[in-house]
Amino acid sequence: MSLDWIYYAISWILLTWHSAWDAIGVPVGAVIGTNWAWILAIIFLVVTVRVILFPVFVKQIKSQRAMQALQPKVKELQEKHKGDRETLQKEMMELYRKEKANPLMGCLPMFLQIPVFLGLFHTLKRLNPTNPGKTLYGWTADQFNSASSAKLFTAPISGRFGSTAADLAPLGANTGTVKLIAGILVLIMIATTYLTSRQMILKTGWAEDPQQRMVQRLMLYGIPVSLLVSGSIFPIGVIIYWVTNNLFTLGQQQWVLRKFPPLVPPKKATATAGKTTAQPAKTSGLFGRKAAAPVAKAPAAAPKVAGPKPGAKPTNPKKGGNRPAKRQG
């Protein structure tokens, strides 16, 4: 399957934003070793994509709310089908279908951004003055040459942490500078990727569903760790895109979570109930409360120790009081 349509779309957005900044008066040449028109074009590529995907992001939040509201029912199913994983999975899928909740909705925005990421990666990888195909995907030769020489603090946006001196020679760049800039950006990329996942989990809590919890752990730890390796092959322009996207996500999540706060009180109630019931017996929150009532009645059973008194009423209480003494003797 050809991905040319993605390359054309990404190129069109980049070139449109670059032309807009050029028209506004952003210097074409380097200022502080940076060609800001191209850097801003990449940043606003993120803004464009996130605005388009905003309705999907809202659906993601609503789906997470629905999943959170279903946690008590999920716990009941886990207790009911404990040890029978196959039946548990069938019952949970039926519950999700009935309540119109999708456990995978949390990853949908990220999956939809993968084509954009691949398109930008391919486009920036082509930026080399020696590349003969300068006019592919709607570029002019002048635009291609300008983007090829674009830099961030003297490091070309097409350079990578793993670039060799031979790779950077046509771009007139120094390997040490490229490694320094790319390395700093990779660390920022890893940190912001971790923070975006952590922010959401802290607000909504860890899922009770094992599959959902596994997805959360993958998002929180797996992806940031993988970036330690994959970040070395990303062009600096792609890392700029990723960091900007993470910062945009952090701000967007903060706004949405304030406007549509998560169901924290019910979550805490079930969590505390789970802690109290975990001591007497491993039961759910609802059953735990019912089990707590007999514990309160247990002291009431203490008067039954004085059972002889009710039994002694038909007879003489004094004699009834001597009979136990004789039995003891």
Question: Your description of this structure?
Answer:
- With about 325 residues, this protein is mainly α.
- The chain has helices spanning about 5-25, 35-50, 55-70, 70-80, 85-100, 110-125, 140-150, 165-170, 175-205, 210-230, 235-260, 265-280, 285-295, 310, 315-329; strands at about 150, 155.
- Strands 1-2 form a two-stranded antiparallel ribbon.
- Strand 1 (about 150) and strand 2 (about 155) form a beta hairpin.
- The protein is elongated.
SSE layout:
Elements: H1 4-24, H2 36-52, H3 54-69, H4 71-80, H5 85-99, H6 108-125, H7 141-148, E1 151-152, E2 155-156, H8 165-168, H9 175-204, H10 210-230, H11 236-259, H12 264-278, H13 285-297, H14 308-312, H15 317-328
